[in-house]
Amino acid sequence: MRLYPAIDMIDGKCVRLVQGDYRKKTTFSEDPLAVALRWQEEGGDLIHLVDLDGAKSGDMPNFDIVCRIASELQIPIEIGGGIRDMHAVEKYLEHGVERVILGTAAIKNPDFVKEAVKEYGKRIVVGIDAKDGMVAISGWEEVSKVSALSLAKQMEQLGVATLIYTDIATDGMLKGPNFTAMQEMAEYVALDVVASGGVSSLKDLERLSKTGVEGAIIGKALYTGHIKLPEAVSLCQDMK
């Protein structure tokens, strides 16, 4: 199971939210690049970046910071938040980003996802954020009437290879992932499913590895010290 240390950005700073609530924000660092370099040094497989400003606005306000991180790191990075047209996809991929994550676009504009996958293949990842099994969009501020499972199946049919599945109820709570939902998703589609939300301990990672997910995103637990990344990396290597 791969480990994806997360860096969420607002106003160019590294932050964490609780259950996607922008009003419940904690700033952990003024320098996302320094944080990314640390996670690289400690053994992260891939840095998971989220532009929370972009997720709400639909543009790329933290683009320059993302590019700087991509140029400085030796490991790949992926970015999500506000990527809603081919111009944004191309701009990121041309500036050193390995993978881009399409979220709101997946439900509002599946033809765009199809076009992006046709052009860039496995470099296109879809992020499905769910609340009570239903897809949330626009920076989690709107819950749709589409189920996470049905959207995942649609994305599979469009040729998407990797899916990041976030359970909003557990995100930032440090109370453990929604293991049932993660296993259900991993079994429902023939995609690489990356689990996101609630990872708070090495035991959580052990249990997640048994659900069939390909990887796990670790966010708040790294910043609070609940998980030491080198220990998590060692654990996942032992589980191979």
Structure description:
With 240 residues, this protein is of the alpha/beta class. It has one domain (2-238): Alpha-Beta Barrel (TIM Barrel), CATH 3.20.20.70. Helices cover 39% and strands 29% of the residues. The chain contains eleven helices and twelve strands. It has helices spanning 32-41, 52-57, 63-72, 86-94, 104-108, 110-120, 148-157, 179-188, 202-209, 220-224, 229-238; strands at 2-10, 13-18, 21-29, 47-51, 77-80, 99-102, 124-131, 134-137, 142-147, 162-167, 192-196, 215-218. An eight-stranded parallel β-barrel has the order 1-4-5-6-7-10-11-12, surrounded by eight helices. β2 (13-18) and β3 form a beta hairpin. α9 (202-209) runs parallel beside α11 (229-238). It is globular. The mean pLDDT is 91.
Brief synopsis:
With about 240 residues, the chain is an alpha/beta fold. It has helices spanning about 30-40, 50-55, 65-70, 85-95, 105-110, 110-120, 150-155, 180-190, 200-210, 220-225, 230-240; strands at about 1-10, 15-20, 20-30, 45-50, 75-80, 100, 125-130, 135, 140-145, 160-165, 190-195, 215-220. Strands 1-4-5-6-7-10-11-12 form an 8-stranded parallel barrel, surrounded by 8 helices.
